[in-house]
Known about the structure:
Low-confidence stretches: none
Radius of gyration: 15 Å
Strand content: 5-15%
Order of helices and strands: EHEHHEHEHHEH
Distance between the termini: 28 Å
CATH architecture: 3-Layer(aba) Sandwich
Structural class: alpha/beta
Shape: globular
Number of domains: 1
CATH class: Alpha Beta
CATH topology: Rossmann fold
Amino acid sequence: MPPQPGRLPAPITVITGPPGAGKTTIAAALARSTRLGVHLVTDTWYRWIVTGFVAPWKPEANDQNATVIEAIGASAARLAAGGYDVVVDGIVGPWFLDRLITAAGHPDRVAYVILRPSRQAALDRAVRRTGDRELRDPDPITLMYEAFEDLGPFERHVVDTTDQDPDETLTLVTTGLERGTFAVG
């Protein structure tokens, strides 16, 4: 059962994971479940780069990705300061979390949720997508999945979405947010 409109425990919630994990579905539902919700889709920010764009999964995209993550963090912080519950949807791995937190102002403002189905489930879901801008190439999908396999201390932030429908995942995420399971600071 979806949560009733209200406030999230942290004003900025990052929903991340590999392609095909269910990030956009869960982030959109979570943002809609609040009284003042904003759904920031990181893919949109990358589409704004009209010249010099580098596919974000390539090693040479590191500076570009860092800049985009910092811009998203600063925007999320401003929206949160205005009273909005901000749900960031995208591939924000632990390797960039500190940059987002710094831009957001403080770790206690950020909750971090990693959706991670099995490798095969993620691949199956991602390659079935439709739309001109959807990533369906198995090679970068697999590469990004591997980046979320061994997360060390961030394993406690993982929700396995392999056999869950979106309502089940949303319930687990909402419960975890309420309990502080996904708190960063």
